[in-house]
Design brief:
Number of domains: 1
Helix content: 10-25%
CATH topology: tt1808, chain A
Number of strands: 13
Shape: globular
Order of helices and strands: HEEHEEEEEEHHEEEEEH
Radius of gyration: 20 Å
CATH class: Alpha Beta
């Protein structure tokens, strides 16, 4: 029988089994928690604090859409709105969520949106791989989103995915500071100069 592997400090090396949480357990913990976390295939991942550029870009987008939504049956939510990405398996907090029409929620708490029209994520070095990988795929597998945005926080650049009639997604990109991006599903326009207002980027916005 082989001896047990030891850590450098001489203590035994012990593999701790992963703890998996049901959606009900996750939601109960999340509603009591002082910080946000996402639920992914039974595991809970705490969300780190956003960077200064992220905390400027996301509110800029929210402010622009909120202004354009005045007197319309549309609304925009910041990153505190949880989205039911895949029932029972994936709950996430997008950077920005817009809904036109009546917002629908799972159960009475109204903290799990199920019908986003537009989802936007502000990319960061620590989350970009996740946002472009499984999270991106699962967002676009939802039935309700018609558009999906990936917004860089290091340089003025937005990737814009629009759902097509065959359920494929058409990608367009905007990088010029003077560029605007049309969001047809919600009848809005984003100006990159407004999205990146007061953000220090690699490209000068002045």
């Amino acid at each position: 029988m082989q001896g047990q592997e030891l850590l450098p400090n001489g203590e035994p090396y012990v593999i701790t089994p992963r703890r998996y949480f049901t959606p009900e357990e996750y939601l109960l913990l999340e509603r009591r928690s002082e910080y946000k976390s996402e639920h992914y295939d039974g595991e809970i991942f705490a969300m780190s604090g956003a960077s200064e550029p992220h905390n400027v870009i996301a509110p800029n987008i929210v402010s622009s859409l909120h202004t354009q939504f005045r007197n319309r049956s549309c609304r925009v939510y910041p990153s505190d709105m949880r989205v039911n990405v895949q029932p029972g398996r994936h709950y996430a907090y997008p950077g920005v969520v817009a809904v036109c029409g009546e917002p629908r929620f799972q159960e009475e708490y109204k903290d799990r949106l199920v019908n986003p029209t537009v989802i936007g994520e502000v990319l960061s070095p620590s989350t970009e791989a996740y946002a472009r990988g499984d999270k991106d795929l699962r967002y676009r597998q939802l039935a309700s989103p018609q558009e999906y945005l990936l917004v860089s926080q290091t340089t003025p650049h937005i990737e814009h995915y629009v759902r097509q009639p065959d359920s494929q997604w058409l990608l367009t990109e905007a990088s010029a500071v003077t560029a605007t991006m049309s969001l047809p599903s919600i009848d809005c326009t984003l100006a990159l100069a407004e999205v990146y207002e007061k953000v220090e980027c690699e490209q000068n916005l002045e």
